[in-house]
From TrEMBL:
This is Uncharacterized protein. Transmembrane segments: none annotated. It comes from Raphidocelis subcapitata. WD repeats lie at residues 226-258. It comes from the Eukaryota. InterPro entries: THOC6, WD40/YVTN_repeat-like_dom_sf, WD40_PAC1, WD40_repeat_dom_sf, WD40_rpt. One of its GO terms (cellular component) is transcription export complex. It holds the Pfam family WD40. Belongs to the WD repeat THOC6 family. Keywords: Repeat, WD repeat. GO terms for biological process: mRNA export from nucleus.
Amino acid sequence: MTAWSCKNWDSQAFLQQALESAAERHAIVYALAFLPQTGGGGSGGGEAQQLLAAGYSTGCIRAFDWRHASHLWLGARQAARHCLQWRAHEGGVYALAVVGAGSQSPVLLSAGDDGYIRGWSVEAIAAAAARQQQQQQQQQQFSGEPAAAAPAAVPAPKPLFEAALPRADPPFHVAAAGAPAAQTLSPDGARGAVYVGASDGGLHCFDLARLGQSGGGGGGGPSATLSGHAAAVLGSDCCGATGQVATASEDATVRVWDARAAAPCVAAIDVWAGAAIPPASKADALQCLRSPPATCVRFDGGGGWLVAGSGDGSLTMWGLGLGALAKQLKTGDCVPQALHMQPGEVLVAGSEPHLDRYRFSLESASRSELASGAAWALDVDPASGTVAVGGARGATLLSAFGTRLGQLV
């Protein structure tokens, strides 16, 4: 037997392991996306998985079988763990979105702090998750036997394509260090494009077909770059009915874009003041920088209205047809950080551990407490109405009526 010597202790390796362990333990969910079912998700002939993808501050994406998580919570009040995990970006995963949900080959898009957007096959994710779950079930069956070995790791999904964001041309030139982070994703399914908001205030439009042809080499650049924000884009949304895109920025403004117009920025709104400003006015943009940031934004289904959150803890509803403020509402101590609009209802999550449901007129209807702490991410399953809210302590699943259905860690 060889004696252990403290002289052979690798302090750097230990420090790195400790840092990685701490980062994993305190990982924050920044993005969520319900994945459509595909033919690759069955395991052992059983029911197909229903997967939810979660993007983390560590750069990993985890896939959860949220139906299994619901059964586990309702039956035993137990939190569910992921059935698949892979590293998608260097730095946090800030946004996730699904494109081609009704096609044979849907794709999960991810945007990260490293300045890249990447595409992942949903079918490949489902197949890998099913294999991993099968191995976990086999391990549980033999867990009582000392000779049982841990299952081999399932190979991580490979990106179908990736693209790096270029630098935008902001209205105020400042010294820039490194590539801009990709912070938001807004697919335009009707036109086969995706809009990506960046940390330097740029909004980049990528053609999805062109990205798919570029493969994994990173050769697909944006077809258009829209500049106007003086600070980072924190939220964005694309209206399928009109093709317009709304962006919420750290410069305290919301801008509405139409890439087909001669002047792409068709409206600029000072969210804190609740007033329109000239889109090309640098003086007004500079004045807005003194106000709290615009944190998130969403269109209604028809594209005639939008709702934006502000860093001062308020919601602003704007009528695009009238070009005027419809209503402003203080949300108390909660800073809105994630929004979802559905017919007759606005879902809001933010810096406090609860999900608020408002009527379309921004009258408060109900509140659901969250075990996931402060929230950064929100998504709704279109088929069941199940709501997923992610934050500092994993994610919480809620029914369409606000009942707790599960907890993901």
